[in-house]
Amino acid sequence: MKIPKQQYTSEFKKLAVTRVKDGLTAGAAAKELGLVEQTLRNWVKAASAGTLNGVGAKMVTPEQMEFSRLRAENVRLKRENDILKKATAYFARDTL
Asked: According to the model, what pLDDT value does residue 27 have?
């Protein structure tokens, strides 16, 4: 199953970049905001180049961002559930 690509508002990106520029490490800021560290590093690099929201970047509403986050969480939870089902079947077979 493919994880849907998450979309973030420009305000959220600017907030994340500001956290790093204020002295927080990229790893700590990414963990705090629930991001992948490399994504945050890319945003910091784009912000320093002045292309954080790039030409042609579409604006994302907070609702769209939340839907994207929920879709990704749903995929992750389905994977975890599948792993637990397989583990239960494996261990149930050993006890018989």
From this structure: 92
Level-2 CATH architecture, domain 10-95: Orthogonal Bundle (1.10)
DSSP string, 1-58: -PPPPP---HHHHHHHHHHHHTT--HHHHHHHHT--HHHHHHHHHHHHHT-TTTTTPP
Q: Could you state, in order of their start, the residue ranges of all structural domains in the chain?
A: 10-95
> pTM, whole model, 2 decimals?
0.54
pLDDT single digits (tens) 46-59: 888 888 875 456 67
Cα–Cα distances in Å, from 81 out to 32, 38, 70, 89?
Answer: 26, 27, 16, 12
The pLDDT of residue 55 is 44
Q: Are the C-beta atoms of 8 and 60 separated by less than 8 Å?
A: yes
